[in-house]
Amino acid sequence: MFVKICGLKTVADVECAVAVGADAVGFVLAKSPRQISVDEVARLVPASSALTVGVFLGQTVAEIRSIVAATGLGGVQLHGSAYTARDFAALADLGVTLIRAISTEAPVTVGSFGEDMLILDSPRAGSGEQWAWSALRGQTGRWMLAGGLTPANVAEAVATVSPWGVDVSSGVELTRGTKDHGLIRDFMKAVRTP
Fold first, then answer.
1. pLDDT tens figures, 93-136
2. d(CA 24, CA 81)
3. Are 117 and 99 in contact (CB under 8 A)?
4. How far is the C-alpha of 100 from the C-alpha of 76, rounded, in Å?
């Protein structure tokens, strides 16, 4: 099970996520309580042996290319329906993992925009609200379930829809935008314990 811990802000957050076996760590570069600066991302990327993913919403392809060059990110997550297949094609030559993140309650085709991975999020992304995961039964490919996942419900979510991976942010926070390392450990244990 591929696991991405998103919205990390400190070296300690990154080190915790990597230590417990996260496959990817995410840094939010869009307006959010979890937003960090390009300089902060550049400082955090070297702390991770996991895939480092910049989360973008509203930035142009040119801005994203510049940020990837400045930070050394290994992945780019384009969040929301405003990004098109043309945007993914314009980033393909960067040699990074491309992730499309959309809010949906129905299965979609992974890779249809040229993405390497797909995140299916709740209708209110970033809210932490649990939603009707069961609608995604039968979804195939390299896709991650997101939205409302916590250490208490992730095992049930995985059993319900059998995603390729999971993505969590608010479900491992002490307060909005501040990660709790104990919750990160609990989340990973819940995901990886048969």
1. 999 999 999 987 777 899 999 999 999 987 665 555 666 777 78
2. 22
3. yes
4. 8
What average pLDDT does range 70-98 have in this prediction? 96
Instruction: Note the pTM of the prediction, 2 decimals.
Output: 0.94
121: its two tokens: 């999020």
With a cut of 80, say whether residue 21 has pLDDT above it: yes
Specify whether the CB–CB gap between 168 and 191 falls below 8 A.
no
Using left for φ > 0, alpha for ψ between -120 and 50, and beta otherwise, residue 144 falls in: beta
3-state secondary structure the chain: CEEEECCCCCHHHHHHHHHCCCCEEEEECCCCCCECCHHHHHHHHHHCCCEEEEEECCCCHHHHHHHHHHHCCCEEEEECCCCCHHHHHHHHHHCCEEEEEEECCCCCCCCCCCCCEEEEECCCCCCCCCCCHHHHCCCCCCEEEECCCCCCCHHHHHHHHCCCEEEECHHHEEECCEECHHHHHHHHHHHHCC
Report the pLDDT averaged over residues 6-33. 96
